[in-house]
Design brief:
Number of helices: 23
Helix content: 25-40%
CATH architecture of one domain: 3-Layer(aba) Sandwich
EC number: 5.6.2.4
Distance between the termini: 28 Å
Catalytic activity: Couples ATP hydrolysis with the unwinding of duplex DNA by translocating in the 3'-5' direction; ATP + H2O = ADP + phosphate + H(+)
Bound molecules: adenosine-5'-diphosphate, magnesium ion
InterPro entries: ATP-dep_DNA_helicase_RecG (IPR004609), DEAD/DEAH_box_helicase_dom (IPR011545), Helicase_ATP-bd (IPR014001), Helicase_C-like (IPR001650), NA-bd_OB-fold (IPR012340), P-loop_NTPase (IPR027417), RecG/Mfd (IPR047112), RecG_dom3_C (IPR045562)
Pfam families: DEAD, Helicase_C, RecG_dom3_C, RecG_wedge
Shape: globular
Largest sheet: 7 strands, parallel
Protein name: ATP-dependent DNA helicase RecG
Strand content: 15-25%
């Protein structure tokens, strides 16, 4: 297996792999010989010490090197169930070994054969016995693989045995000493990493803790480096191809007036910092692609408004895109009240806008009469023509941003001009993950909350304890505070969920005849949803029973209680978003998780919610519980499917890899000096990163 490159060599052609085995290996994601040797153990067992039969003790697990004296097969009363019993010796003492249901074993373990055994010792029927031990027959002049050393244990699926798999790996390693190393030599030397082959060998057969750690770090670094090199190439490519963006100088007059006359608070330091980063980007003719992260309630709206004002001042239009109609409406009202006094005109474009009103709005957008356009993704549909769009902010909230770059570019001000783009997300994403998935974007983080917030108190109640809430709800409402009551989606079915919120609504309405209770769910027409949200905001409703449609963005400072029913059915980031609906004013706020969780993970999530309100900590817990693919919906892309690297632990390796990759690509934008690395990057991450154009 030297002629063909390892990654082109299908496992099918390896000695000992037939059609059945090939399928089983494929199921583990192993297609090629390279996949195989890069399939690392899940853990190791220290089987270095050999035990002599004289020293056996019950309830221990031991490694033995023995000879077969006799073997017999026993039929049992249960049909088809066989017991293989063997008598073993080390030349001095004897031991019984028993295997259940390993047909054919008696033909392998013939008397006189030398075998390595690894398994548990127990007292059985007055004798010591080893039960279902892993075994390996040792041929003349061979030394055992399964004992006498630290032995790798692989994460295998049904049908594959550790022993067979170990042999296969060993065979591949012995027969492919040359493996292409994508790391440029100078980087390997700079970090004093061991050679690739040695590192792989060490992962399978660790010689010691230190050397194993070095090997592991090297391989983790390498994975991160390859991905970051891809990111760097993509960024370079984009800036070469990109259209120019309009230069939007920062004169600041409108901004200044907004901050002085309209916005009721001084900006936090974090808001100032990210506003400056954004403002500097917009003053260049390179299209901005910036991700703005800030926890729920950290004040992203004000930052977006400042950027919109910069666009308007520069003589261009700005767009604000929200994920849902309710949110678009809410943002519209807010922006309208913020901006109209400054003479900036704001319009709302959503799907439910009909006929005449819609035409009028479209007209205002195309003539430039509308300075700022708020809407849903309808903004980027065909019939919308902007007069001169210079800046767009996309409020993704908890969704992981999928840049609709092409749709947006088509809306650019003039032929060949692209707008500046800011994506806002309220899911604090661990930085390691941001860099891995969004590594080619610039990132701004609001890492500080506006002052004067009292942390939300969170309690978990069992469902049968819900009665404890009634007095509490009355008390909060008589203090003129307001309450959200959220019911989850049931089995993804709208109809059933609506039935369940409606039932809860009827129940609470009867229970609190003196309170004004409202109902909100996704099947109501959007005008009705809007009316209900508005009466809640104005205090005409005390309590609102809702599905998760209120999840994002809604801002009612007087709301102080969030009850989440069946909270264990929600993901952590969703719970965090929901909780973020309260605690927006000065009053103490509460979150009640009403739930009888049925899974361990459900319990974990509730505990995390009770323990912290820090969005970044919650995001890390989420990452730990679900893995990166799930957290960010990037599973299908496979960007974060590392073999070795761990985004929770390998922060400093990631920083190193990122720095190295970006400076390498800066010096050599097409990697013409590192053709091998380029090929490797294209082959391994090229598809995920859509790097096809670079080759
Ligand atoms: P989010 O980041 O979740 O979109 P918002 O922009 O809706 O947060 O802001 C949350 C709340 O905090 C709003 O009521 C807003 O008026 C308030 N807020 C924003 N910035 C500040 C500030 N610098 N000082 C005090 N309150 C602020
Ligand atoms: Mg918001």
């Amino acid at each position: 297996m030297t002629e063909k490159k390892l990654h082109q060599q299908s496992v099918r052609y390896i000695k000992g792999v037939g059609a059945v085995r090939e399928k089983q290996l494929n199921r583990l994601g192993i297609q090629t010989a390279e996949d195989l040797i890069l399939f690392f153990p899940r853990r190791y067992e220290d089987r270095r010490g050999l035990t002599s039969l004289a020293k056996l003790r019950p309830e221990t697990t031991v490694s033995l090197l023995v000879r077969v004296v006799a073997v017999e097969k026993r039929q049992t009363s249960r049909k088809g169930f066989v017991i293989i019993q063997g008598l073993m010796t080390d030349g001095q003492d004897f031991l019984r070994a028993v295997w259940f249901n390993r047909k054919g074993l008696e033909r392998l373990l013939t008397p006189g054969k030398e075998v390595a055994l690894y398994g548990p010792i127990d007292w059985k029927y007055g004798h010591l016995q080893i039960t279902n031990p892993e075994f390996e027959i040792i041929e003349e002049g061979e030394s055992p693989e399964s004992i006498g050393q630290v032995v790798p244990i692989y994460p295998l699926t049904a049908g594959l045995h550790q022993r067979w798999f170990r042999k296969l790996i060993r065979f591949c390693l012995d027969n492919s000493p040359f493996i292409f190393d994508p790391l440029p030599d100078f980087l390997r030397l700079k970090h004093a990493f061991p050679p690739l082959y040695d590192s792989i060998l060490e992962m399978h057969y660790p010689q010691g803790r230190e050397s194993w750690k070095k090997a592991r770090d090297r391989l983790a670094y390498q994975e991160l480096f390859v991905l970051q090199t891809g990111m760097a190439l993509r960024r370079g490519e984009r800036s070469r191809l990109a259209e120019k963006a309009p230069i939007l100088p920062e004169s600041g007059r409108l901004k200044e007036r907004f901050l002085k006359e309209i916005f009721p608070y001084p900006l936090t330091e974090a808001q100032k910092k990210v506003s400056l980063e954004i403002s500097q980007d917009m003053a260049l003719n390179i299209p901005m692609h910036r991700l703005l992260q800030g926890d729920v309630g950290s004040g992203k709206t004000a930052v977006a408004v400042l950027a919109l004002l910069q666009a308007v001042e520069g003589g261009y239009q700005g767009a604000f895109m929200a994920p849902t109609e309710i949110l678009a409406q809410q943002h519209y009202y807010r922006l309208h009240s913020f901006l109209e006094p400054l003479g900036v005109s704001v319009v709302l474009l959503i799907g439910s806008l009909k006929n005449r009103a819609r035409e009028l709005t479209l007209q205002k957008i195309s003539t430039g009469e509308a300075h700022v356009v708020v809407g849903t993704h309808a903004l980027f549909s065909d019939p919308v023509t902007f007069s001169n769009l210079g800046f767009a902010v996309i409020d993704e909230q908890h969704r992981f941003g999928v840049l609709q770059k092409n749709a947006l570019r088509a809306k650019g001000a003039n032929e060949g001009q692209a707008p500046h783009i800011l994506v806002m997300t309220a899911t604090p994403i661990p930085r390691t993950l941001t860099l891995s998935v969004y590594g080619d974007l610039s990132v701004s983080v609001i890492d500080e909350m506006p002052p004067g917030r009292t942390p939300i108190q969170t309690r978990w109640l069992k469902k049968k304890e819900e009665g404890r809430l009634w007095a509490f709800i009355r008390e909060r409402c008589s203090a003129r505070e307001r309450i959200y009551w959220v019911c989850p989606l049931i089995d993804e079915s709208e109809t059933l969920s609506v039935a369940s919120v409606t039932e809860r609504y009827e129940y609470l309405k009867k229970l609190f005849p003196d309170l004004n209770v409202g109902l909100l769910h996704g099947q109501l027409p959007s005008s009705e949803k809007e009316t209900i949200m508005r009466s809640f905001a104005r205090g005409h409703l005390d309590l609102i029973v809702s599905t998760t449609v209120i999840e994002v963005g809604v801002d009612v400072p007087q709301a102080t209680v969030m009850v989440i029913e069946d909270a264990d059915r929600f993901g952590l980031s969703q719970l965090h978003q929901l909780r973020g609906r309260v605690g927006r004013g000065g009053n103490q706020s509460y979150c009640v998780l009403l739930s009888n969780p049925t899974t361990r993970e459900g319990v974990e999530r509730l505990k995390v919610m009770c323990a912290t309100t820090d969005g970044f900590k919650i995001a890390e817990a989420d990452l730990r519980l679900r893995g990166p693919g799930e957290v960010c919906g990037v599973r299908q892309h496979g960007i974060t499917d590392f073999r070795v690297a761990d985004l929770l632990k390998d922060r400093s390796l990631l920083d190193m890899a990122r720095k190295d990759a970006f400076s390498l690509v800066e010096c050599d934008p097409r990697l013409s000096e590192e053709q091998g690395l380029l090929d490797y990057v294209l082959r391994t991450v090229g598809k995920n990163l859509e790097l096809a154009g670079i080759a």
